């Protein structure tokens, strides 16, 4: 038998080709003529038969096991067969798959064929375009199919025409060309199998070649002409009682690999594999010495049972393998199967009685078996040793690999450990460095906070001292103004928490500790107003630098701050110069940031721009301004003469206010004698050191200067003689009545100089007040055109200027109180524009004309003008005498 996967060459080995006859024909030749020649038989002519001699008489049967059914290929082949063929007996109905077998003895009728074959395939003349079902080819038959067409498309085993003609043709064909007959297995042989007999090898070979072509084949992906059945050629030599069974097995195949689709194809593959598997189990069972050998699992093994069981028989298994490397696994499987088959040791022929076997035969038989088994055992031991050796070598290699792997792992762990340690050290060093840096920053912050707290405590103590001093001075009004603001400032700082305090203090500390960390003392520099009239604000208090305008420096220590807190004022000359270049721009004031500008007027009447202060200096003013006010207040109290001289009469000529002795006071008189002069020069001139603290001048503090307040109070108490002379007793009474319920409004420049004190109705607004002030300016001098001003709403938190449009909507009651007096208000004016021409500047130099010299002549005219300019509500309630008094 030949065994192997599909396409490995089993059929080729068995039957060969024209040039290379297969085992079948070689066996026939060897048996019949002793090996004199070789031919495939079928295609050869008589010339080829010449090589075949005439020898033993043989009987040849050709069987096909297809779908686990045994068919006799000789029946209907046209060969000169003998035996029971051709018989339709046992023709199983293939249509209904029933067991009723047509009792067609010798000549089957059409009915028999129709019954046993496929009536539904009777397609009459409509067989046009029928696809070949036998060879699964695309060849189609058109028109009325012939029997050949039917056989071609449906195979000879099927009758496919329902028409009588076709059936007749089919029957005729079957009778002529033969038809397949299914055989049953009886015992260990096929029952009623036909055979061809003879002693001529060539003739028999040709018959076998014809029959071989009747095998069921099919084109698959693995083999173009794949056998779908097992083929058995049985040669019986009756003369010697021998038998040669040549088996061409169908190749085991994979359904998907073979591309088998459809139920029939899959069934074919399943049946093929079933026969191969059954044969394999039989071989294994025999090799294993099993008590039961499954011969009956397939028709193939049933027919081969004698060959396996008869100890006189010999089995030669030819393993076919494909040279294709892709089929290597199949080749290995085939070889394993062959190795298993080699282990088969057949027992003594059962049919031979043991008692009939002579002892010598038995002994030789046993010896041969022992030798065979010894050889087999030796071979197994040899293979076992070889495998054990290979296993030991593999184990050694494995052990070496494991050792290498362990070493590599150890190295990896070592590297990982070193890397981790190095990384940890690096992280620790970084953490330590960062911690150290943070600690140093924390320490600096704590020191800074401590300094700020000490500064705050010192300010509070200083405030208490100031309050006590003011209480002693019995001036509650001024005390309220100054102390209240300072107290409010400090309370605000305290209430604002650490954050606000820190912000406020940091503004000063930025200058002190930040910009001048090494300076511990306070340097107070008084401005030289005598020599630098035009730079009165250009006084500078710095620790590290001094400007040329410095006249003297007093270095004192701030009370309560033995080592800290330098409060300094820095005015930059460059800023001042640049500000002076900015002509004509209306200056806006933002009180929140204490951003203010003050216009100074020099002796030539030239308005000078206030230096633009940086924010931090302004913030210092916020902190220090009240100290400045305290100093001024104290100076005013200590120098009543100077105060009186300074504010005695604003309309007097500067030369009339001079007092001998004190140069500062003289300078102040010069300044306050002219209301257009900046009084801050006077503040600086008359101030005296307050305790051990002297703070630089501040325009903010000057706005609320207590000295100015006092001066106004004093001025209010004394009515000018000129006014008294202008009023009669009746008018005086009328005035006294009207003055009751009126509000006192004190008018002053933003720079600090007092202008006038007026009385207005509570319903009066800033526009009314403007008219009166403008009337006053007109009376003071028609050439004072530069007195364009805007009201500063100091009572408002913003302190912003009030536009002309809104003046009519702002009542004077919104103005801040004057010295905390309920019916007294302060109107602060800001110069709106500078004189544009030199002519106007010269006009400013002209001293003011005394009011009293023009009151009589202009009273009536101004009354009408002022009354007409006043708001109707105010004008209606004011008598002419009152208006005259206001003008005065
Ligand atoms: N030794 C060989 N020399 C030349 N051609 C060969 C040889 N063996 C096989 N063939 C060719 O290989 C093809 C398949 O061979 P074959 O049909 O005998 O395989 P198989 O094992 O019988 O397959 P299956 O089991 O499907 O029938 C055929 O065309 C055949 O001619």
TrEMBL record:
Residues 635-661 are annotated as: Disordered. One of its GO terms (cellular component) is microtubule. One of its GO terms (biological process) is microtubule-based movement. Residues 373-469 form a coiled coil. Pfam families: Kinesin (PF00225). InterPro entries: Kinesin-like_fam (IPR027640), Kinesin_motor_dom (IPR001752), Kinesin_motor_dom_sf (IPR036961), P-loop_NTPase (IPR027417). It comes from the Eukaryota. SMART domains: KISc. Residues 1-344 form the Kinesin motor domain. GO terms for molecular function: ATP binding; ATP hydrolysis activity; microtubule binding; microtubule motor activity. ATP binds at residues 4-11. Keywords: ATP-binding, Coiled coil, Microtubule, Motor protein, Nucleotide-binding. Belongs to the TRAFAC class myosin-kinesin ATPase superfamily. Kinesin family. This is Kinesin motor domain-containing protein. It comes from Triticum turgidum subsp. durum.
């Amino acid at each position: 038998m030949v065994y192997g996967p599909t396409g490995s060459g089993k059929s080729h080995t068995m039957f060969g080709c024209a040039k290379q006859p297969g085992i079948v024909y070689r066996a026939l030749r060897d048996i019949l003529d002793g090996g004199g020649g070789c031919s495939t038989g079928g295609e050869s002519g008589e010339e080829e038969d010449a090589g075949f001699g005439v020898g033993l008489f043989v009987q040849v049967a050709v069987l096909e096991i297809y779908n686990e059914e045994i068919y006799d290929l000789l029946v209907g082949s046209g060969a000169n067969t003998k035996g029971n063929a051709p018989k339709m007996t046992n023709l199983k109905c293939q249509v209904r798959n029933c067991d009723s077998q047509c009792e067609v003895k010798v000549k089957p009728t059409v009915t028999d064929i129709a019954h046993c074959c496929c009536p539904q395939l009777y397609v009459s003349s409509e067989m046009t375009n029928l696809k070949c079902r036998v060879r699964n080819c695309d060849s189609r038959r058109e028109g009325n199919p012939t029997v050949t067409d039917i056989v071609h498309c449906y195979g000879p085993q099927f009758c496919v025409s329902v028409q009588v003609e076709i059936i007749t043709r089919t029957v005729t064909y079957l009778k002529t060309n033969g038809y397949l007959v299914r055989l049953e297995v009886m015992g260990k042989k096929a029952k009623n199998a036909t055979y061809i007999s003879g002693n001529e090898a060539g003739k028999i070979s040709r018959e076998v070649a014809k029959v071989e072509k009747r095998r069921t084949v099919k084109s698959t992906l693995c083999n173009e002409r794949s056998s779908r059945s097992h083929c058995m050629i049985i040669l019986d030599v009756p003369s010697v009682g021998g038998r040669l069974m040549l088996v061409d097995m169908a190749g085991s195949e994979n359904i998907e690999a073979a591309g088998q689709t459809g139920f029939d194809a899959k069934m074919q593959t399943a049946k093929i594999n079933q026969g191969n598997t059954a044969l394999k189990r039989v071989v294994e069972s025999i090799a294993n010495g099993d008590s039961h050998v499954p011969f009956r699992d397939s028709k193939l093994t049933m027919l081969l049972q004698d060959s396996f069981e008869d100890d006189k028989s010999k089995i030669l298994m030819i393993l076919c393998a494909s040279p294709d490397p892709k089929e290597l696994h199949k080749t290995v499987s085939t070889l394993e199967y062959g190795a298993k088959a080699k282990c088969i040791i057949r027992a003594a022929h059962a049919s031979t009685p043991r008692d009939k076997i002579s002892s010598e035969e038995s002994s030789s038989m046993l010896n041969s078996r022992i030798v065979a088994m010894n050889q087999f055992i030796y071979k197994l031991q040899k293979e076992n040793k070889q495998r054990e050796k290979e296993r030991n070598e593999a184990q050694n290699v494995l052990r070496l690999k494991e050792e290498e792997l362990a070493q590599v792992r150890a190295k990896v762990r070592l590297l990982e450990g070193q890397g981790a340690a190095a990384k940890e050290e690096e992280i620790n060093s970084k953490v330590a460095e960062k911690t150290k840096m943070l600690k140093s920053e924390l320490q600096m912050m704590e020191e800074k906070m401590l300094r700020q707290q000490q500064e705050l405590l010192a300010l509070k103590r200083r405030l208490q001292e100031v309050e006590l001093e003011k209480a002693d001075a019995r001036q509650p009004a001024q005390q309220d103004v100054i102390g209240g603001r300072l107290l409010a400032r400090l309370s605000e700082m305290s209430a604002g928490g650490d954050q606000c305090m820190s912000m406020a203090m940091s503004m000063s500390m930025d200058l002190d500790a930040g910009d001048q960390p090494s300076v511990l003392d306070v340097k107070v520099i008084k401005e030289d107003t005598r020599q630098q009239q035009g730079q009165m604000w250009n006084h500078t208090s710095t620790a590290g630098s001094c400007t040329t305008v410095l006249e003297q420096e007093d270095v004192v220590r701030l009370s309560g701050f033995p080592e800290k807190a330098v409060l300094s004022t820095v005015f930059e000359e460059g800023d001042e110069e640049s500000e002076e270049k900015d002509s004509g721009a209306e200056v806006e004031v933002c009180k929140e940031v204490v951003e203010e500008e003050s216009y100074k007027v020099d002796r030539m009447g030239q308005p000078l721009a206030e230096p633009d202060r940086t924010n931090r200096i302004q913030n210092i003013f916020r902190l220090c301004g009240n100290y400045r006010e305290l100093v001024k207040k104290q100076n005013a109290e200590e120098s009543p003469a100077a105060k009186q001289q300074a504010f005695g009469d604003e309309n007097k000529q500067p030369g009339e206010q001079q007092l001998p002795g004190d140069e500062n006071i003289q300078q102040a008189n010069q300044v306050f004698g002219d209301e257009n002069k900046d009084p801050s020069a006077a503040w600086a001139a008359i101030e005296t050191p307050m305790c051990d603290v002297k703070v630089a001048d501040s325009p903010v503090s000057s706005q609320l200067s207590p000295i100015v307040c006092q001066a106004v109070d004093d001025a209010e108490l004394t009515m000018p003689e000129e006014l008294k002379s202008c009023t009669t007793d009746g008018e005086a009474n009328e005035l006294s009545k009207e003055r009751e319920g009126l509000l006192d409004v004190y008018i002053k420049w933003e720079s600090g100089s007092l202008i006038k004190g007026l009385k207005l109705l509570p319903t009066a607004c800033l526009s009314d007040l403007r008219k009166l002030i403008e009337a006053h300016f007109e009376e003071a001098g028609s050439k004072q055109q530069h007195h364009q001003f805007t009201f500063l709403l100091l009572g408002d938190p913003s302190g912003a200027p009030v536009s002309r449009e809104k003046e009519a909507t702002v009542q004077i009651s919104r103005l801040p109180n004057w010295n905390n007096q309920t019916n007294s208000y302060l109107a602060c004016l800001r110069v709106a524009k500078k004189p544009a021409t030199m002519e106007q500047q010269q006009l400013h130099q002209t001293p003011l004309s005394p009011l009293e010299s023009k009151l009589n002549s202009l009273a009536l005219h101004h009354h009408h003008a002022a009354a007409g300019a006043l708001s109707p509500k105010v004008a209606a309630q004011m008598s002419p005498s009152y208006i005259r008094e206001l003008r005065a």
